[in-house]
Every structure is written in C-alpha cells, then in structure tokens.
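Full entry
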Amino acid sequence: MSAPNKSYDPVEVTSLSTGELERMLGEARAAIAQSRNLDELKAARLAHAGDRSPLRLANREIGALPPAARAEAGKRVGGALAAMSDALAIRQSELEAERDQRVLTEETVDVTLPWDRAARGARHPVTTLQERLADVFIGMGYEVAEGPEIEAEWYNFDALNMGPDHPARSEQDTFFVAAEGAPAAESGMVLRTHTSPVQIRALLSRPLPVYVVVPGKAFRTDELDATHSPVFHQLECLAVDEGLTMADLRGAIGAFVESMFGEGLATRFRPHYFPFTEPSAEVDMQCHVCRGASVAPGAPPCRTCKSEGWIELGGCGMVNPRVLVACGIDPDRYSGYAFGLGIERTLMLRHGVADMRDVIEGDLRFTTAFGMEA
C-alpha cells in the first residue's frame, strides 16, 4: 500500500476548487431565491443541501486529501455550506410570513357581522310529521290528548290488561323511576313504554263518546342502532262509542293511509296479539313506491318493500273489554278501536331514511334536507 501524497494540492480537485464551490453556491442561492412557496423551497433544499447534493458530495472529497490539505479545503466547503444554510433560513422565514399573511387574508372572519347572518337551523322532520299525522285524525273529528312521560305502572300496564308477570314489565324492557337510593323496581313509576296510558287517562277524564289521537314520546331499554332507539315517538288513535266495529277501524286506517301515502293504496290485517285489544291485528299497507308491482316475475326490484309488495305499518284492534271495565265503561254498551304506529318508522318509510341514528343525532344537514326551516 502506497503512502499518502503529502504534496497533493486540493485546488487541483475540481469539486473543491474555489471557482467550482462558488458556482455550486450560486446555483443553490438562485434555486432558493426562485422558490415561490414552501413546497418549492423544500425541493430546493433537497437538491442543494441533501446528502446527494453537489456541495455535500464535495465535502466527502475532503477525507481523501492529505492531512495538510484538509483544513484549507474544509474551510472553503464549510463556508459555502454555511452561506447556503443562511440563505435557506432567510427564504424559509420570508415564505412562512407570506403564508401566514395569506391565511389571515383568505380565512379572515368578520366578527362584526350581524347575528342573524348565522344559520337559523331547521325544524326537525319528526316534529313536523307528528303534527301532520295528528292533523289527519283531527280532520276526521278526533281530539289531541296528552299525558305525562313519567307514568304510574297502573296506567302504563295494569289498566291495559298487562299483568304483573308480563315480560314488558321487567327492568330489561322498562325504565323504572325512583327517588335516589330507593329500589327502582318498587317505585311504581316508569318512563312510559308507549303512549297507550294516555288513552286510559282520556277514558277516565272525558265523557263518552271519546275520539282522541295521542302523539308523544316513549321510552324502552333498546340499544341505539340502525332500526332501534331507547327514545322514540308514537302516535295512537282511540275511539270508544256505541256500535263501533272492525269495519270502522278499517275505514279510519284506510283514510289515514290515503292521506299520508297517496290514494288507491290497499291495506290488510294480519291476526296478532296485544293484551289491550281483542281481536288484534297487524296492519300492512300496499307499497306506496311500487304499489305491489315488484312481486311480479321479472319486475324491477323495490328497495322500499324489498319486493314483497306490502309494508308493515303498525298494530290495531278492538279495545279489550277488560280495558273498558278498568276505566268504568260498560263493555256491553260501548265498544272501541285503537291503532298505533311509530313516527320515526313512518318518516323512514316516506322519505327513504335508512338509519335511525340519522333521525336523532340532530345534524342540521339532515333536518334542512327536508325543506322545513323554521
């Protein structure tokens, strides 16, 4: 192995010569000065100060020089690197100041604008639909009845023929309300699980005949998901008079369906069981979108009824005589019918809402889409 060449002149290495270093520094300064934004400055930094930049590669050549020549070469390269670093710092500061000024100008907020320029919000479609549903029955001669949301068990269960062992009376289905420290299940008070207790209050407080529609909020221990909510809205109608039959119930439901979903829609009853009505039925209406046509072979599918042709609407039936007796009404003289539906479900059916959470989250983008601004 040969000994180092102590007489080696670093000036003879092209990349370490004064002229070449000044040329590389000049190119770096020009690229830095021409950078119009921080992204372009970053590109210039990588090109002229990165590990593979000309000045950095020249700096690596110093290690190959004889010891006596390294100091002078290092001084020249170090000076060029320092000058480039200063130019980068100055241009960085200038571009950041320009960016901040531009942001202040473009994103400024005029806090002196009058308050009424802010969005006014929107009326919730559940509220509007609830009133529209009630108006349908008001137009047929019904009155609106209301009641408390914290209800006694007698009104919520016993008077409606739901015995002490009925599964709906368990804490897994019902919110019980009690004073702090007291056993909730023994309080006798619940968050009403349906609007039916208002029917009992109406029968106890109004003279016969009674024709009432009951819109309101109800509570059950359901998990919030796409089709369920622990807080929801219902609408029920109740009629108690002499000589009422299932035909009258069918007529009232038919009039309601035509008012809400369009004329010519058929309805059907399917036998069911509810403790407060006898006989009881589930009500289906003909799909208001495809009008039953999607069930035909080869017909286009219907997303609303899932090509079944029918949509489940709610429950109904003739008022159970035991309910009439609990309210002091003679079941041999009077009869009645009742019909109930979920308002959120009706909203989802009429407007194609797929997720219950969209209805209750309070997002103005959802409510204003219905065009019902206050």
Observations:
- The mean pLDDT is 84.
